[in-house]
Amino acid sequence: MQEFLFYIKLGLSHVLDFGAYDHILFLSALAVPFTFKSWKKVLVLATIFTIAHCTSLALSVYEVTTADVGLIEFLIPVTILLTALFNFAYVFKESLDIGLFLHILATAFFGLIHGFGFSNYFKMLMAEEEDKITPLLGFATGIELSQVTIILVVLAIAYVVLGLLKVKRSIYIAVASILIIAITIPLLIATFPI
């Protein structure tokens, strides 16, 4: 049980680390188009992200595959940028048909990329562990709890901005997404493979 709790804490700190805010940015971009009325959709997306994230960790831990760390470090901000850009489909939803299926596929793929970004460190942690399932499940639990926390914060911000301040939804999504893009651009530049 102690080991399981250790990995839950590791999952929590992995996502909620303000020093490595890429996870927070991605989840914020993912949640921006949603409100408390559509909380189930964003929770499904976050859970799919967690499953994909942990799948890439498992693939690494069991030495099924490895990834180029430099490329992954660049692809992580690319996923944030693409998610924020995808939000504009919600801004112009009258002219675009937004299917949840496409959103799910993209989120799953992006989850795999984010998981590979942490896989080398996680693999090193698990090198001495015989039981690899318990740490993976603990880590996944920590990730999911922290992601739900971030999503609730973003949904609360949406409630204040849309419900109390009466900002138009399309303006809120556009401004929030542009802000996320602006924060992401330096990450893209810093990690660009040369």
TrEMBL record:
Keywords carried by this UniProt record: Membrane, Transmembrane, Transmembrane helix
Keyword Membrane: yes
Highest taxon listed in the record's lineage: Bacteria
Keyword rRNA-binding listed: no
InterPro entries with a match to the protein in the record: Put_HupE_UreJ
Transmembrane stretches, start-end: 43-62, 74-92, 99-117, 137-164, 171-192
The protein's name: HupE/UreJ family protein
Lineage, broadest ranks: Bacteria, Pseudomonadati, Bacteroidota, Flavobacteriia, Flavobacteriales
